[in-house]
Design brief:
17 helices; 2 domains
Length: 458
Amino acid sequence: MDALREEESDIRAFFNRVRKKDFSGNVGIALKNSIYQFSATFVGKVGALILTIILARLLMPEVFGLYSLALSTILIFVAFSDLGIADTLVRFVSKELGKKKIAKAKAYSEYLIKIKVFIMLAVSLILILSAKFISENYYHKPLTLALMAGSLYVLFGGGVVILQALLQAHNFFKPILYRESLFQILRVVIIPIFILLSIKSLSSEFLISTIILILSLSFAFSVFLLYIFYKKIIFIDDWKSSKKSLSKKEKNNVKKFVLLNSTIILSGIFFGYIDIVMLGYFVSSEYIGYYQGAFSFINAAISLITFSGALLPVFSRLNKVKMNTFLEKTTKVVSLVSIISFLFIFFAAKPLVFTIFGPEYASSVNILRILSFLLLSIPITTVYSTFFLSSGKPGVVSKFLIISTLINIVLNYLLISYFITHSSLYATYGAAVATIISRYSFMIFLMAYRRRSLKKKN
């Protein structure tokens, strides 16, 4: 009971700090950074949804499906170009800066940036060389130019990630919010104008490749903007003049952390995009458009439901008893919102699809209904994943994410290949069901592990 009262007191203190804009001390800095970070994520999610809706309406299902397939493939390559290096940089550089060891912080950043640049260049080159094979021999769709343009997406997107990581390590989160806001405005304005001016004169392959190129150039502008912030804020004399190298042991520690992070990131990216990639092999592009339209709407709804997850980084500083209490209370609130959202989307699927995407996406209605079950699992999974990460147990999340990803891959192949014999639309239903089963598996694994851990303690 005392722990519960303490937690309620902490929550009131949290909201009082926000209301009074009191960001003093370490807790205040953490709170301010969490707000900026969540705001940037929220702006990104909203901007992505708006762009998706605009593209879906302008391109129509067939071309929109090609665009979704190309972007999903590029994002898998992007994941391979990062491998958790950005998170590793934030952890090691910020730790050394906290100890006032500027020379050591610079040594870590330079070492990780060299690795990041090398991997980005290698992955970008591999994407260029494999673009034709992926397009013609696997997808059997005109995506070669779009995937080649994606090589710039890998390079400039990677540049954004590494500069943002440097700013985060130095506790500067405001420039990241500015960058994200400008990036979303640029692409939401420029891309639709380009499509309206050229949709009748360009083939679908040239149209999609140019859209990917515009996205890449938007990232290039973001790199330029972040570099200005970085130079203005971080290029202090001590940082520029500091010289120190890392020991073999320190480099090995970095590699171990990168390996652990890369496992989570790669599993997560395959978890999120394997359905689209497999559908790309079995069905024509318009059915990918139907599926992606429904999935993008579910993703947006999930982002709103998991708003409470933004508080977890602050309360992860609490002791284990209060963390567990907060987890249970957060889960109850998130579950209630999830159920309401699920019921609304499930029963209002048809008017939602027709209003947002247009009657051309009528085939998305039942896909949306099936995928709406994700609203009952993903928000809870997000809360539990954050709980384990905040508790210093990333290995738990990594292990169950890998298992769930394997389940997802196997089920997608089995269900899509079975239902394709009936129709392409049924194949998309199969992909949706495979995604739901694997996502629920991940949630159940995390919940069961925590319950077993509590029983052992008792």
